[in-house]
Amino acid sequence: MSDRRTELESAPWSGRVRRYDLIKEGVAAVVIVAIVVAALSTLFGSPDDKQVTFKQWAVAAPADFYATAVQELAGTSGTAGYGAPYNHASDGVNLGPLYLAKWLGVTHPVDTVNDFVITPLTTVANAAPVADALKQWQGSDAKTQSTWATNYDTALTKANQDASKVSAGNYGPVPALAGGLLTMAQAGSLDGALLSQGNYFQSDNTKQTLFLGDGSYFNDQSTASNLQGSTWGMMNETGRYPGQAWLWLYSFWYQIPPFNNGDNHPFGANADAWIMLIMGALSIGLICMPLIPGVRSLPYKIKIHRLIWKNYYQEENL
Amino acid sequence: MGIFHHFMNLKAVYIHWGWFQISITNLLVILFMLVLFGLALVLPFPGNKKGKDQK
After folding, report:
1. Quick one: A69 and A186 in the same domain?
2. Domain contains B1
3. B3 in a domain, yes or no?
4. Residues A33 and A93 in one domain
5. Measured between alpha carbons, how far is A240 from A225 in angstroms, rounded to an integer?
6. Residues A37 and A124 in one domain
7. Domain count of chain B?
8. Which of A224, A243, A263 delimits the end of a domain?
9. CA angle A22, A26, A28 (to 5 degrees)
10. Separation of alpha carbons B29 and B39, rounded Å
């Protein structure tokens, strides 16, 4: 640092000064914001979409629920094949050779067969066919269970999710288990059974959310409310309420190639990780603006500060 | 609740331009913020009168 610069920076301010009451300004800001919040709340209220329940899903779209329950047993659902942090079924989200999710490990284990189907069924008194199916399932080895579930999942997919059109086959107790879970969900007892797994006090809704997300019903609700990531859903709110408009840049990347190329494309499948990286780099760039040549000179070229302090510049003929 | 609660929970209206999509409400909020920014630039500070500055 030059001597002249040091001298200028350490010299006392010799220009004009102005009285400034920071406490007064802070109080005024809090009061004004409180009045605006109270007024807007009185006028508009807040979004109150009712939560989607398993009962709602099983009653409105029983075929979708039934097929999803079969997929959970067969290990073909989205959750069953997700990888970390829920299971070891795949490598999970990665940035090229950097397998971030895999490195962090399975921190929230989810066993779709037992957590979503078998354990909930054991918490209620089942009718004879379901109780017998449970005994048959629990008395069989893993290989047999997998064969039954995979056979039935394949047959149900071929029948376009219409259980009445599935041809006869080696399905074991799988149809009865899926039917039992559908009955349980329609009665409204599956929501509580999924939540009550684990600690006495439960606030972890991960399992319910994952199970709901594996079916089409929940996804369709999201599409109907314009909340899908591929349609700027990150910025939106239910109904006509304003959403998170400040997330426009984060949401923007999901709308353009290669990040919107679908789950089979390396970038599309790992869009979350790539976009997080891009936004992280941009955020660091923003923090480092004063250090970046060219960018740090933009205020001199844009001159907005001269507009804000126009009185000073006019009076001083600057 | 709220006086316009029913209206606010109706299905939102969206504007599409190719791959760009935005709800009318979000657009209004963004325009309002831009107007507020513009006003903050051009309106004088309260109490910013000549003679208040001190040497």
Report:
1. yes
2. no
3. no
4. no
5. 10
6. no
7. 1
8. A224
9. 115
10. 15
Percent of chain A with pLDDT over 90: 63
**d(C-alpha A24, C-alpha A89), whole Å:** 59
Instruction: Give A177-225 pLDDT, tens digit per residue.
Output: 999 999 999 999 998 888 766 666 677 888 999 999 999 999 999 999 9
Same domain, A75 and A201: yes
Nearest by Cα to A213 from A58, A68, A76, A67: A68
**Domain enclosing residue A32, as ranges:** 3-45+288-315
Residues of chain A positioned with their CB less than 8 A from the CB of B53? 16-18
Average pLDDT of adjacent 10-residue blocks, chain B of 55 residues: 87 89 93 92 70 49
ipTM of the complex model: 0.84
Smallest CA–CA distance, residue A233 to chain B, in Å, is 9
Check CB contact under 8 Å for B54 and A16.
Answer: yes
A123 in a structural domain: yes
Instruction: Name the residue among A16, A45, A236 with its Cβ closest to that of B8.
Output: A45
- Across the interface, do A245 and B29 touch by the CB < 8 Å criterion? yes
> To the nearest whole angstrom, how far is the Cα of A280 from the nearest Cα of chain B?
23
Distance between A33 CA and the closest CA of chain B, angstroms: 15
Query: Per the domain annotation, does B33 fall within a domain?
Result: yes
Contacting A residues, span 216-275, partner chain B, CB-CB under 8 Å = 226, 231-232, 235-243, 245, 255-256
pTM comes to: 0.81
A217 with A71, same domain: the answer is yes
- DSSP letters along A270-284, please? THHHHHHHHHHHHHH
